[in-house]
Amino acid sequence: MKDLEQFLRDNAPETPEEGQFLLETNARLDAVEGIKKTVDGERRRGRIALIVALVAGIVIGSGLALVLTLYPVQSLQSSALSKILGKLQEWKELIWGLIAVCSVALGILFMKKKEVAF
Amino acid sequence: MTRERFISEVRACQGRLRRFLTSLCGDSALADDIAQEALVRAYVSSDRFIGNFKAWLFRIAYNCFIDNLRRVPTPSAQLDSPEVLHVADGSASDASFQHEELRRALALIPEKERTAIVLHYFEDLPVKEISSIMQVPSGSVKYYLSVGRDHLRQHIRL
Questions:
Q1: Are B105 and B91 spatial neighbours (Cβ–Cβ below 8 Å)?
Q2: What is the DSSP letter of A73?
Q3: How much is the pLDDT for B95?
Q4: A39: which chain B residues are within 8 Å (Cβ-Cβ)?
Q5: What stretches in chain A show pLDDT beneath 50?
Q6: For a 10 Å CB count at each end of chain B, is N or C smaller?
Q7: What is the residue range of A90's domain?
Q8: What structural domains does chain B harbor?
Q9: Gap between the Cα atoms of A67 and A73, Å rounded
Q10: Which residues, at least 6 apart from B86, have a Cβ–Cβ distance to it below 8 Å?
């Protein structure tokens, strides 16, 4: 028993030079950094596009809601405009819903911790 | 963890990491490939690292070794199987091993026994640390060491 244990302890394999290995490690880490930067950049661009879309949803929705509140359909003379406003009036709940959804999504997006992993 | 700190930690334990993988694979070139893969994986998740760097790195390296085994299936590791003996006898020797007999004997024993033996006798790690690297209970490590020694004794003439 002791012979085998001593034999194992005395005959551990040797490792070759570390220089080449560390050079290769550094090269691979450079590649990882490059990929990480690209992925982070794409993620940032996607995040910005999403924020822009949500802000646009809130702004347009709020604008429409404001128009509907300030100008009731009956008060308008132009028939074309009153038709459009009439349609919008039908979708009033949907517009408020859209504003609420966009606001909540924007809030979640800002609260969410930025993840580094890829 | 910054890149500088990561590199300095790697510099401190790369020799032992490569020896561990060379002992598992029996081939220092393949061991270096697995070590590089393990280091990339470790670097990517180094932000979440807490604790003993060496044990953490060895665990990642061990998982990479297991993944590599699954990618490149070897003949079933039956100890007395003639095919396995043939593969081991015919495989090229590796300059890292002072004793070719030891390299071949390690190649013939099951992977878990080999890992426990290598970590305990070559890397001088205690059972508790081996159990954390292999992610098995300490009792299983002791079992692998005991059975592994018996199996090695069948292939090594002292």
A1: no
A2: G
A3: 66
A4: none
A5: 116-118
A6: C
A7: 50-111
A8: 3-155 (1.20.140.160)
A9: 10
A10: none
